[in-house]
Queue: 2 jobs
Job 1
Amino acid sequence: MPSVEERRLVDALRAGDERAFTKLVQEYGPAMLRVARMFVSSRAVAEEVVQEAWLGVLKGLGRFEGRSSLKTWIFRILTNTAKTRAVREGRSIPFSALASDDDESGGVEPDRFLGDDTRFPGHWALPPQRWDAAPEGRLLADETLELIEREIAKLPPNQAIVVTMRDVEGFDAEDVRNVLDISETNQRVLLHRARSKLRRALEEYLR
Amino acid sequence: MRLDRELSCIEVVELVTAYLDDALGAADRERVEEHLVFCDGCSTYLEQNRQTVALTGRLVPDDIPAPLRESLVAAFREWSRA
Amino acid sequence: MIAYKFLEAGGVSPFAGFQWPVGEWVDAAAADPCRRGIHACRIADLPFWLGKELWEIELDGEIVVQQRKVVASRGRLVGRVGAWNRAVLDELGRDVLARTRRRFGAIAGVGGYVGDVQRHLASGRVPLAAFAAARAAEVAGGPVEYERERARQAAWLADRLGLGTG
């Protein structure tokens, strides 16, 4: 259900309030560009997708009923626009977790666990060590952000898109399901794979 | 030979995302938590997942380039005139 | 119904991180936004949830029995089980080790678990030692023996802490 704020915002846009529009663009534009870039072949095309998506938002404003949040609705338009463009480019991103273009070795390596011939099969042989003890505080935080940025860029697009929407942009599972039109199971499998890789990269970096 | 309700660490690791999403059924949630009581490795792994999510959440995308912003404003003006 | 609850230091729940008030009724939704309800142990469940603080909790409303706990729609911490502390946890550990050694020390394929239990106790990991002991029993005699070992641990706790009486 639309919040009072959202209804006011939509009314302002319909009334031609340019400041309201600029604010909205400022707020969602950067994330929209980032997500669009994961669907298509270049930065230039991603910008075109964002342009087209905003046009779609404006044209569709009369239709927005507030059944989802404004943000979710905008991102749905964005991803639909991006998907269409990607298909035109001959790129299509499978979101089905079954269609994996990934060798899944990004998770925890099997040799970190005890084998079937031991007293505790499947238990940790080399358990992870806590990260609280990492020194250097603040600087470390900036560098680790850059690391996460780099690792997301290395992910297969479907994983990158889901983890960006869930963990960077804060959409919940239901939102992502609606925006990307994929099952909750699929989005969770993709999120799991993405997070496993990010965690592993952090573990190696912080060792 | 294994107790059929017991989870090994490999299995807990696989369930971590669903656990954090509260998407496990009551029985699986219980098995995971039961395991976490005695397993430091998995407790740490879970905590690292939380920390990873928290760090990822701090990413802020770059502003959109000025030319794009300007063309969006132009599009808005044209749209509101119509 | 009266049951028991292990909490972390300061009366904080180990999984939901909820700070429990004492003596006040708490509704499931407040304690656990993910609607899982108020969790509590019967005596038989205690060995599975060993934690820093042990509390007596009164449960009310709809009560559901799960395999290793009960879940209620509301609960109220009645009081701390003062007899429970680190020293008693360590005593439990020693009891578990003694029993495991006595029962399985000489059995091929199971005797190795005695060393595991010992090692875990040496590093202060009593819940892991208790699990290893139950695992040893299971390897020796199947799932029924796993449950029996856990039941022994529960009985030891009830007896040592004077639970379920009065």
Job 2
Amino acid sequence: MLGPGLYNYWMVIVLMMMGLYVLMAKGNMVKKVIGLNIFQVSVIMFYVTMAKVRGGTAPILVPGDAGEVLYSNPVPHVLMLTAIVVGIANTALALSLVVRIHEEFGSIEEDEVQKMEDHV
Amino acid sequence: MLNLVDVLLFFFLAVTALGLVRLRDLFAATMLLSLFSLLSAGLFIVMDAVDVAITEAAVGAGISTMLLLATLAITKRREKAPRREVELVPLMVVLVVGGALVWGTLEMPEYGDPDAPSQTSPMTRHFLEKSRDEVGAPNIVTSILASYRGYDTFGEATVIFTAAVGALMLLGGRRPKDARLTGSVLQPHNRQSLAGAGADEMQPKELHLNRILEVATKSLVPFIMMFGLYVQFHGDYGPGGGFQAGVIFATGVALYALVFGLTPAQRVLPPRLLEALLALGVFLFGAIGLWTMVLGGNFLEYGVLSDGPLHGQHLGILLVELAVGITVAAVMLALFFLFAGRGFCGPQRKR
Amino acid sequence: MGVTTLVLDVVGGLLLAAGSFVLLAAAVAIWRLPTFYTRIHAISVNDTLGPGLILLGLACRATHSWEILVKLGLILAFLLITGPVSSHALAKAAYRSGLEPRSYRRAKGGPPSTP
């Protein structure tokens, strides 16, 4: 139950929480995007950790009639490929928004932009 | 099950993330994020996820870093000093959520447990045992991605196309009223371009201030392109496929643009062509699906594409991966051209 | 046959250890060297030599498959081109932005200062 078998999951949770903290606590928008990236990568790592089998190998079929080769679960890998691509789409759109915000307000700090918006 | 490499890599990842939290110089933070992606790619390889590793390395350490650097060049480089060192409310939230998650993992099976539900599920068994006979591609991840769950991949291509369209709407210029052949939404006017600003506008062609970089780039770009093609068409047999190949191809062109200037790169790959390729990739994917319906099968049922189901699967996977590769390459390049062409402009309205 | 594989194994292991030591030296260099240019110089050499030695060590342990040897050779060629060029790009960018290499000639007897 407890112990070194779960070390991977706990480290993933630590990374996830650090990404979440950056996303929530930092005012700079580019920093928030970076925090979002950290969060994304840690989620991907969570799924990949679930797919691994002790003594397994990459899910590429060994040529010939191999018989009893143990493969790691390929389904989470497929899901995570999609997740990475969606993540980069997310990042690209977020950064486009940041660039436009900078062009309109002259700043990418959240509180400064909020102040400027409140004055209108 | 836990080995030293796992422990060390996770430790380095945690240290890098901590550095990312504390750093206020955004340029250094971007480099640390690139390092973070590379370390996680190494960790994925250790955990047998080779396709995920090559995608994460290409996308995270390549494209993400490039877009962040372009954004930083347009906006600001340093983060403003915070009022407080540590924000209390986010810290509380993070501790509570983290604690709840850790409590949730206490019920989970151990890392690498062969009796875990994800390993013994009938779907996993089916893919591992039957994909050789039903699809025939040695890389099971590719056969699932392009064939068994091809519909999800279609949605994914559409998602990344939508991101490009969104970025185009936000950052693209207006199509000029006189419909010149070279006018394109990817080239907003009266902006001084970022990439190679010293290379084409302000510097005569003979000056060659970046001689070493130019020679190195010229000798590398053909091999990068060939590697992209290899990854594209070898995705059935080893790690690779459409996404990774598209990203590698885009990286090659971006390298050329960074060293030689945006204008020479856009002479090689005109933005009008890029707009067409963006749409062509997604259209090709959908067209394959509709064509299989015309031939009598279901949407994206590759078995009807050719004589014999295995040949049909092979052809279908090839075409679909090609469509995805075209889409991803066009999207990444369009994003690069948009960000790099934005240039140094100040705020348009002072409030 | 057995002796050759044993020798190759040992040589490969030694090359791997040497490569790791060189990379460790690069890490220590980033930490301890005073100025930007000295750090770049140390890293440029070590980050090309270290992985180069590691690749040679891996090649010694993979002589059974020529495909792996060719791939390792290609990676080594790529590394030899991009390693020095990227350090050059870094140093050039720093110089163009105005970062001057500090001279350690003593001015009026005072100790050299670090930037």
